[in-house]
Amino acid sequence: MTGNNAEQVVSTRSRPERRRRGRPRRWVLGLIVLVVCFLLVGWVLLGTKQGWIETPVVGKAAWLQESALAKALATATPTPEPTPTLMPSEVAAQFIPQLQGALEHKTWERALEIMAIMQAVDLRDEQVRQWSVTTHMQYGQALVGAGQEDQAQIQFDEAVALAPENESTLLWQDTTQRFRAGREAYNAGEWDAAIKAFKQVQKRIPDYSDVFLRLVSSYHRKGEAAIEQELWSVALDSLHNAIERTPDGDPSAAELDGLLSVAYRGQGQVAMEKENWAAAVEIMTEAKEQLPKDLDVVDLLGRAYRQRGIAQQEAVKLKPAKADLEMALTLRPGDEKAQQHLDRVEYLLSKKIEIDISKQRMYVWKDKKLVYNWKVSTGLRGRDTSTGRFQVLDKIPMAYSRVWRLKMPYWLGIYWVQGIENGIHALPIRPNGSIMWGGLLGQKASYGCIILSKAAAKSLYNWADIGTQVHIHQ
């Protein structure tokens, strides 16, 4: 071989040998670098976990992302399965047990907080809406029970906004509005408006708040106001309504009875001042039924009976007069005026004049004993004497008839017919002084009057009193 070729051969053999000699060095160096990286990463992770190194999360993540080793580790770590994503309605439903517990324990602030969370998650969900309505309604009803109607109104308004067609929410909203209106009217002394509102509330929800007591109080105050204005009928009506609604034993019952007595006596006194005795008796009789132990009521009723009895006596209605006067004395035993009139009425009732048309006879009675028995002449056919129960209305020693131009001695008037008074009298005297019907006693002959002989008429005239009963029958 030439020199050049020898150099070439030597040169050719020496390259692999040089590569083999340099390869172990590079491999060792790479291994050392890898071990150092592992140690460095382990030290960083351990230091971060133990708190030695406080590297911001973002910095750590960026460093790891830039690290080739981190990429290798991430590739080696298994990927966890993804957590299922819940629907908003499902998230809201998880709060229902907590809300139920808050409602059961009446922890209203907590219930409202949970309700707000559920609404924030999904207000459009029907279940959330229903639970929201329930929360507002229960809280509002609790506020009503606590007498906080204004705050309750807010809750019911919220419930109606969520369920505008729900009958229950509308009922409580409307009832609360009416109650508050009644309360305002009561505070302003507008009793009629207050009564109207509270009655409407009680009709809708009978046990709403304290509506029962407020209604009773409204009637009570209206009665008081009416008494001050002397509006007795209004006062009586209002007080009766209050008393009917007041439980037995209630402390206000005695005050109501006192006001009722004042109202009855006021109305009764007005009737007596107008001499409307029948009305006075009726009013005070009702008062006594309501207030049987009220001595003022009893006294005024006794006076009303006495005055009506006297009026009956003056109208010659003796039996009704007797009954009234006896009642007056029962109620007021020491009433001397009532006793005097009763004595007179009883005396008049003890005397009776009886005319039997069929027998043409007169019977005069005193204490059911026959005093006189005389022949009479009654009216002719077509001018018949009226039958019935009458009394002596007036007494005239010598009456005169312009119609018949006759004098009628010892006149006792007993009834009127078409503007003409008929009565009992002696045989009439003509203008020339002659006596009519002298021979006809005992048979029908007169123009309607009852005719007696002069002697009998005089005796009867002296015996009878105005008011003496007269009974005429066939």
Short recap of the structure:
The chain is α+β, with helices and mostly antiparallel strands and 474 residues long. It contains 18 helices and nine strands.
Residue stretches low in confidence (pLDDT < 50, at least 5 long) are 1-24, 48-77
Q: How many helices?
A: 18
Mind telling me the C-alpha Rg?
59 Å
Main sheet record = 5 strands, mixed
Indicate the proportion of strand residues.
5-15%
According to CATH, the homologous superfamily of the domain at 351-473 is: L,D-transpeptidase catalytic domain-like
Overall pLDDT metric: 87
Order the strands across the largest sheet as they lie in space. 3-2-1-9-4
Task: State the oligomer.
Answer: single chain
CATH topology of the domain at 351-473, by name, is L,D-transpeptidase catalytic domain-like
DSSP, total strands? 9
Distance between the termini: 199 Å
What structural class is derived from the secondary structure elements?
alpha+beta
- CATH class division of the domain at 351-473: Mainly Beta
- The CATH architecture of the domain at 351-473 can be given as Beta Barrel
Query: What's the order of the H and E elements?
Result: HHHHHHHHHHHHHHHHHEEEEEEEEHE
Given the C-alpha coordinates, what overall shape results?
A: rod-shaped
Descriptive account of the structure:
- The protein is of the alpha+beta class and 474 residues long.
- Among the domains are: 89-188, Serine Threonine Protein Phosphatase 5, Tetratricopeptide repeat (Alpha Horseshoe), CATH 1.25.40; 287-348, no CATH class; 351-473, L,D-transpeptidase catalytic domain-like, CATH 2.40.440.10.
- 62% of the residues lie in helices and 12% in strands.
- The strands form two sheets. It has a five-stranded mixed β-sheet with strand order 3-2-1-9-4.
- α16 runs antiparallel to α17.
- The radius of gyration is 59 Å and the shape is rod-shaped.
- The model is unreliable at 1-24 and 48-77 (pLDDT under 50).
